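Known limitations

Structure tokens in this collection are predictions and should be treated as such. Users comparing against experimental data should check residue numbering before alignment. To illustrate the layout, the record for Glycine N-acyltransferase-like protein is reproduced below. The input appears on top and the generated tokens appear beneath it.
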Amino acid sequence: MQILRCPAQLQLLEETLRKSLPTTLPTPVSPPPWDPGDPAARNPASHEVLVDSWPHFGIVLTRLRPEEHRDPRDYYTNQLSVFYRDKGALQALMEGTEAVTPARAFQIVGMQDGLDEAVQEVATARGLKVE
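Generated tokens:
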């Protein structure tokens, strides 16, 4: 996984993800209420953004920066937000990277069809408990 730190890359990713929002949303999403030139204002939660490749990504993951982790058992703090373009990218993330590790309790937040099933399949294959 690659961590995106460049403001231009993050801006491009944001624009790409906005285009992927459901068409059922009313009117276009308004611009952010923060100064786009101030990276600290855009990331008050101290998260980092990871992609499997750039610029043609299959999955995007946000997580708390490692230096901000206080309790590896706290799955509320160790929340992962995920957007993927296909189920295979999610399975690859869960099975073969250090971005998601069983040494730390975590929860995955996402709104795509099949997310629960994909997580269950990988967890079962790895002998992990999923709630």
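For this record: Residues 7-19 form the longest helix (13 residues). The first strand starts at residue 2 and ends at 4. Please report discrepancies through the issue tracker.
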